[in-house]
Write a structure and sequence with these properties.
single chain; 291 residues; alpha/beta; Rossmann fold; N-(1-d-carboxylethyl)-l-norvaline Dehydrogenase, domain 2; 2 domains; six-stranded parallel beta sheet; 9 strands
Length: 291
């Protein structure tokens, strides 16, 4: 088992760290939320007062942070991971950030004597809590193989999708599909309810056919009930759709449906729903229709 420094114990990181402790790893965590550190200690992990203490003797360092500025500060900063972790340690960044930031971190890591994987995840809070995340990994084959015990503890599917930055590109594609699916499920609910059909029963039928999806499996009941407690916030999906748009521009391709989905998510944020789950796109569609 490995000595792990885990930085970022939020909605996703906290249950992931707990799974690693239960798998037998020695986990030392650092985050800005004292309650999350209390939870890690209660589960058998250790708390650190800063990044340096979290990674001081780590064989593997894990980051799970909101966006690229946080990753760059935590990893590349003067008091960051590369300044304090032992040389040769493996950094696994589970955050969803820009591909170019992942490339910059990997290049800086190589120069400083560290191995790096970008490994963004899909599955949301429920997937993190159940240990069934889907993990898309960019980096070398050898580092991917070395990280297998970590992925096994927190995920159900983990695939090496290419070199550094490739994981973030696949995650951008994931967020494109997820956002589009939420928007279409929202419209389906509105359509059925507007015509007097029980949307809950209707979605039960759809979930069993070709229209079925993980989103319908997990979210149809809460969407019909208008329960939007955040598993993944609209604010974060808005950030991710910016990554999608930037990637499309870099590739010189048009993603017309993606642009529409990005606009709907941006509208949700502008309407004050940024702290709600991204399934709250239903509220945006309802507002468009004066309901």
């Amino acid at each position: 088992m490995s000595k792990i420094g885990f930085i970022g114990l939020g909605i996703m990181g906290s249950p992931m760290a707990g799974h690693l402790v239960r798998a037998g790893h020695e986990v030392t965590g650092f985050t800005l939320n004292a309650e999350a550190l209390d939870k890690l200690e209660a589960e058998g992990g250790r708390r650190a007062g800063d990044i340096a203490a979290a990674v001081a003797d780590a064989e593997i360092v894990i980051t799970m942070l909101p966006n690229h500025p946080q990753v760059e500060e935590v990893v590349l900063g003067a008091e960051g991971v590369f300044a304090h972790a032992p040389k040769g340690a493996l950094l696994i960044d589970f955050s969803t950030i820009r591909p170019e930031s992942s490339l910059a971190v990997a290049e800086a890591g190589a120069q400083a004597g560290f191995r790096v994987l970008d490994a963004p995840v899909s599955g949301g809070q429920a997937g993190a809590e159940q240990g069934v995340l889907s993990i898309m990994v960019g980096g070398t084959e050898s580092d991917f193989a070395a990280a297998a015990p970590i992925f096994e503890a927190v995920g159900k599917t983990w695939i090496h999708v290419g070199e550094h930055g490739a994981g973030q590109i696949v995650k951008a594609a994931n967020q494109l599909v997820v956002g589009g699916t939420y928007a279409l499920v929202a419209e389906a609910i509105l359509l059925m309810e507007a015509l007097g059909v029980d949307a809950g029963k209707g979605l039960d039928v759809l979930a069993g056919g070709l229209a079925g999806s993980r989103i319908l499996e997990l979210k149809r009941a809460s969407m019909v009930a208008r329960e939007f407690a955040p598993g993944f916030r609209i604010d974060l999906h808005h950030k991710d759709m910016g990554i999608v748009a930037d990637a499309a521009r870099q590739a010189d391709i048009a993603l017309p449906t993606g642009a529409l989905v990005g606009s709907l998510i941006a509208a949700g944020r502008a309407q004050g729903y940024g702290s709600l789950d991204h399934s709250a796109l239903l509220k945006v569609v309802e507002n468009l229709n004066g309901r």
